[in-house]
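Cross-posting from the modeling subforum.

Setting up a comparison between two proteins and wanted a second pair of eyes on the formatting. Protein 1 (sequence, then structure tokens):
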Amino acid sequence: MRIDLHAHSTVSDGTEPPAVVVEQAAAAGLDVVALTDHDSVEGWAEASAAATRVGIELVPGIEVSCRHHGISIHMLAYWPDPHDDALVGTLAKTRDARVARAQAMVARIGVDYPVTWDDVLAESPDAATVGRPHIADALITRGHFARREDAFELVLSNHSPYYVPHYAPEVVEAVVALRHAGGVPVFAHPGADARGRVVPDAVIEQLADAGLVGIEVEHRDHSPAQRERLSGIAARLGLVPTGSSDYHGAGKPNRLGENLTSPENYAALQAARA
């Protein structure tokens, strides 16, 4: 089995609708794919129908924006109850904060790079979660940059003078809430140090105590040294190591199936649902 447990659609910052993501996964030879849009489950129904049509297994998931002492963290969760009141409230609060942050950043950026909030909305007509990638797309359409990566490097990074932070739940609280909602939490790209600061091993230990089930090890943004470090942490703490593409369609160079989760580790994630 070929299993990829991290992909995004136009519901968040991917460039393809949920059904197309699933179709692309089948075309890439995957047997299992997870749809894990940022802070939203709105793509599940469309993706599920497509999965039935093309004969692939869909894992319904989310990628929750979290924080730990100012460090941004993304927490994947598979099979959470989309009707859990606490989870629904947290996701709605985070999405609203993302929109307010994006509007504030556009106001700052527009002083130097002509771009408007309407430009951003035009790039995200189907998005439940509007974020910096959509600002990047608006800047590209306006002719300021050629690629999302260029816009992030010069305008949208955490170190940019245009950057505005946004609310996100503390990561330990998020893990507890996700487990309460029946989800199986997996720490997304925890060693992606080129993106910014990463949490130390002690924080991952706290998360394991709180109910963390897995940790993404095989990921494009992890160096060989980080993969070795994370593999060791997973073995020591009894966490399930996963591999994923973090697919965004044309939004990133990541390709479906470029990193995979083994069938044995996928079965361990499934067993944790109980």
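Protein 2 (same layout):
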Amino acid sequence: MKTLLRRTCLSVRQILKKETGQDLVEYALVVALIAFGAVSGMKNLATGLNKAFNTISTTLSTSV
């Protein structure tokens, strides 16, 4: 019984050791994808805000 338990425990440990490296790579790829999306989104947001403020500034300066 102890031998079977030890073999099972060793098998589970080996399986867990093999998958942890894959999980780390997958998490790194997900984080990189999220960062890329955030940078792209912020660039578009900044461009839109800049245009809006320029329009407001032009409108205010011509009104006064």
